[in-house]
Amino acid sequence: MNLASNDNRNVISHLAKSSVKSNKLRNFFTVFAIALSVSLLAVISLYISGRKVAEMRQVEHMQHVIYEAIEEEQALAMAKEEEVSVLMRMKSGIGIELGSKIIQPNYYDETPVKGKVGEIAVNEIEEGGTFPEKLGEVAVTKEYCELIGVEPKVGSTIMVTAIDGTTEEFVICGLLKGDWKNASIYPIIFSKEYADNGAMLAGTPYKAVVKIKDARYMQQSRFEEKIVELGKAYGVKRSDVNPNNYFTGTLEGDSLRSQERIVFTAICVGILFISILVIYSVFYLSVIGRIRQFGQLRTLGMTKKQIRRMVTREGLMLSGIGIPIGLLIGGTIGYFIQKSGWDWMRTLIIGAVIMVADVITVWMSIYKPAMLAAEISPIEAAKFTGELKEKKRKKAGKKREIQEAKKLKRSMTPMGLAKISAGRNRKKTFLTVLSLGIGGILFMLAATFITATNLDEYSRQGEFAWGEYAIILSNNAAETNEHGMSGLQKDNPLNEELKEQLLSIDGVKKVRAFTRMEMKWEARGEASTDYVHPFDEAEYKKVQDKFVDKDSPLKGISYNEMVENRQIFVAGNSVVEEVFGWRFEVGDKVKVTFDNGGETLEKEYTIAGFVENWRYNKEAPAIGWFCMPQALVDEVSGNLNLNDEYIVDTDERKEKAIESQIQDILKEKPDLVLYTLRERKLEDTKSFTLVYTVILGLSIFIIGFSMLNLVNTLITNVVTRKQEFAMLQSVGMSRKQLNRMVCLEGLLLSAGNAVITLIFGTVFGYAGIQIMRELAADYMHYKFPLWFYLGYLLVLVIVPMLVSGIILKGFQKQALTERLRVED
What we know:
By secondary structure, the chain is α+β, with helices and mostly antiparallel strands.
């Protein structure tokens, strides 16, 4: 007989509502789990989406591409193309080194050739100022004025020294908006008249700053093809097509964005999976505690289908509470961590998707417990003793008798009773340990990433692999020299005298010199300027052994053969393709022009092979594309001192004194620039601190899920076994023994999780670090995160002791005789 026929069609809803009102403990854990999963999903989704929106808003007023060295006629003709939505012209002069800052001379059209003002963002002028219009007017930043000791106001006079040493006087007509305190480059904006006639810009070609119509809807590859085709149509070389990488990174098809999407999806799936485990466990324990109630309902005529519907409806009712709470919390956090990317429409869509995903998650979580509740017959419910016995295959004869006899030999100590309790419902124990284990493994992965990252090695990538200070020839000085870098090397300040001065400083261990020579090359109709890296026979052997592919032609060519046949090899052919659209091939001829400070020499060399792995630059920083035998370099270098960089290896304990003395030495050498490992470490530490915070925050959220399941299990164990505990106390168990038994039950669960976390967390962590090292993250070294693990163990010990103590203390206030009379 159908129970609904005895009441009304809403009986299932009434019973579900009644159950939700009466089972406050289950409700709390379920709502908490749902709200936690929803809020975490919302925060991650809104952060990723908000960052994308912020990027889109930022690039909305950025150029898409800059065409270098374009004539005015070409620019005007390009502006007429339908696919060009905005075009403005600009000039950028050679940067001027001023201490650790670069002063960048600029000019750009105040009114675009095509498009509206503001469609491409340019520096804005603060109120009360104007853009430069006359030859002697400039717009600058307040910070630049402070740097040179001039009052930052309209009408102030400043002196600007160009890289050739000439000084010009200008009047400030406007101050640039923005916070430039941490900027390394300060722009100076000049007038159109100065751009055409002024010393710092007159010899510099114009650039076309362009936006492509509907570019944001294009695939990244299609956009790159289009801008190259457009440039080619107006005589712009591919090497002079400079796409805005920040903009192209926002387009579909970007590999980094695709990887990010995969990671994001994996994290969300992981959160939903853990949510399923936690909510399933909560409802599973709830069903076990209500088996007699279900039996009574079945006796009154409720069908299996109605039981399933009732349990399912309870879960959906709790979802109706947990999901809005989670969305509110997640939305609030998401707003504050990504204000610039907040968008109401995207937020509503994300909220709807998360709502559907979490409803499905809850339904999947409670499906099996609902089926379990429906399968309980009135007779089974009447016989229920507080545990679900798993069906086992029958064992025959003597073997079964022996095993049954063994079961009678049980230890009645608190530990023995705790083991019996853990074994009575293995499924519940398994679920709890599994959810704890997943959280623990993810925490160990995060901890392993943090402990494995060697920030010192990360900062030492590049030139700082050999020391703490890098002293290099100034690019500005090379720009102003008639013979370029070779002109500086003719009377090279990186000489033996400087080396001896550096070595005389207390704490300096070694000064390592690196060499390269400037050259101009032509091949396949392209011409450019680069550097050639000289190598000797020993270095070439190292390259062959460590960096050359086994099938490379370089494997079969000796150093002497390269010299005899006038051969060179290319490092980084893939970058050549990115810039020019083609790759060097073995056998290609390269015409090279050298200026050795005294004469200009033209030579031709043959490409012998390639070192595609850019790890080769660990052997020498900034080597350039072309690597040439030392003997061939000696033919053209003349009397040049080819030193290009000094790396100073020091005792880091004497850092302050050493750096101060190096700076004193270099004051008299304006053609040299100093970079320090200390400054790079400060920048890297800031970046990694943010990464560590995000990783740990995410793992702690996931641990919160698993701990929620542990706490729910412990509380349910105590609440549903009040009468059992009362009976144990009535036959002599002391309160202290009872507390110890319950506490040990929780610690057994924690112990199982500790073992899973230790084994799988270590294995996955080690494998993850090896994968990262294969992907060139050589600064990562596996190190067991001992202190993180010990901290996690401490939490696993404290939580069950604390929860068990609080719950037992609460119900033991009731008299023993009253607890014994509690109805089943």
